[in-house]
What we know:
Elements: H1 2-21, E1 25-27, H2 32-56, H3 58-63, H4 68-86, E2 91-93, H5 96-116
Amino acid sequence: MNRFLVRWLINAVALYAAVALVPGIQAQSTNWLSFLWLALIFGLLNALLRPLLKLLTCPLILLTLGLFTLVINTFLFWLAGLVGTNFGVGFTVAGFWPAFWGGLIVSVVSVLLTMFLKDEKR
Length: 122
């Protein structure tokens, strides 16, 4: 349960960083509670759809030597904003490139924070 909470907070911080740094992304609400809800939506979409998308696009991932996973990240970032907008906590993305940079920033910030907050039990 503790790992879930840490991962949830990391996603919230990463989404906040993406919204703050990328000019083509506009958040509906800028309070932390909305980013926590958005991080929950983002985590659920990643847990449910990412394995299916990777399985379906496996030939493209192999053909592009793994670079197609960036397109999957872009799509999931955009979809999280769209689903979050329906719940009143999302963000709007102005096009492909802001979604691409937002997904990339979320990935980089998540990796860095996960390395920094590494569990000592492992």
